[in-house]
Amino acid sequence: VIQSILIFLFGGLVMGYLMCRPCFNEFSRALSVVMFSGSLWLFLWKGNEYIYILTDRYVSWFKTPLKRLFIGLGLMVVYSSTAVTGLTLFFFSVVFKQEINETFFSEIRESVIISIIVSTIIMSFFTARGFLLAWRQAAINVEKIKREHVSSQYEALKNQVNPHFLFNSLNALSSLVYDHPDKAIEFINRLSDVYRYVLDSKDKEAVPIAEELDFVRAYSFLLKTRYEDNIEIEFDVIARKGSVPPMSLQMLLENVVKHNEISDEYPMKITLRDRDSYIFVANKLQLKKKNSKMSGIGLDNIKSRYSVLTDRPVQIDQTGHEFIVGLPILQID
Prior knowledge:
Layout (H helix, E strand, L loop, with lengths): L1 H18 L7 H32 L6 H31 L6 H59 L2 H15 L3 H21 L5 E2 H19 L3 E6 L6 E2 L3 H12 L8 E8 L2 E7 L12 H11 L7 E4 L3 E7 L5
Parallel strand pairs: 2-4
Antiparallel strand pairs: 1-3, 4-5, 5-7, 6-7
């Protein structure tokens, strides 16, 4: 309200004085001119501000700056011309009681030209502010990507290189060395593949799907060796183009093992499949009694990593018997 009052007073007094200086010699004429000029400025300022906000909602400065600029300017010209023509017709014919003739329409044309100039000044202000805000948001996004990348590295390494994982892997390996030496060698190779992938991908924001699936298969072999017939991991992914954040699929498998009961009595089945540009990881829901409620830290980490790479959301669906997470397949050049 205060802003509108200030705009009205500034436009009315300053522009009114510039448009008709002699009118200020008489109070009634000065009041009429101030009302006209103030209304003109208020309609132009607030109307163009609303147009700017509305356009900004549907056309992004980041993705299509030229399209955003031209659409904004086009709407500004159309609105300003219409608003000024209507205000001028009302004030000149009703308030000023001026006869509608050629002079009248000449003054309307002059008012429209002035309004477009005024609107251009106003839109220049909003456009400059928009560019500054977009630049500031871009800088914030860069910092956010850096923080999320560091956080994802930490979370991924923590999920992989933690005492429990290493202990379970070595424990499984020790049981294979004497009874199944060939399988022990394969286990060591797969364990080596897992750690090599962690080190190779730690500085990447996204990796090809094929690389991530090879990594997940190596990780699945370790799980299968540990749980034997109590766990089944089915791969039904045909997508070969696109990318995903590194170790995102592995983190979902880790979550399944961490939060669910896996035993002879409660065998676990995990399915990886792709559909509609998503990769879905689905598992039977059989939560451990002590973990009847999932913490959600791993999923929050994955969602945070995706939020800086795409607008498409991570899909999470839980039924009475199944837990499903869908990761968008990224198209990153």
